[in-house]
Specification:
- By secondary structure, the protein is mainly α.
- It has 4 helices and no strands.
- The longest helix is centred in the middle third of the chain and has 23 residues.
- The radius of gyration is 17 Å and the shape is elongated.
């Protein structure tokens, strides 16, 4: 990929069609550490699962957790989590760790 001036903006071999493949390509190229790649993959898979179940629950907001404790508990149940509180904690942990990784590699 090239920027507006025609300079290469990516390392050869790091472009990939899907998110998980892209993360792995970055790891293989030595651009991110194994532990960070694993964290990104785990977070991606978890959050995609949340999004998929939100869609199945036919909620209005696909990218926000339910406000209702009942819906939050239902979502936690289908994700095999103890309760809505654990679901919120998991989402917050991935959000914080991904923000740290963003700052580590891109800031």
């Amino acid at each position: 990929q090239r920027d507006r001036r025609g300079n290469m903006t990516t390392k050869p071999g790091t472009l990939a069609a899907g998110t998980l493949e892209a993360i792995e390509s970055l790891r293989v190229a030595g651009l991110i550490e194994q532990q960070d790649a694993d964290n990104l993959k785990d977070g991606y898979n978890f959050l995609r699962g949340v999004e998929a179940y939100l869609r199945l629950m036919n909620t209005q907001a696909r990218h926000d957790l339910p406000i209702s404790n009942n819906e939050l508990s239902r979502l936690a149940y289908v994700l095999n989590l103890k309760d809505g509180e654990e679901l919120v904690q998991q989402c917050e942990q991935f959000r914080q760790s991904h923000r740290r990784l963003f700052a580590k590699y891109l800031a």
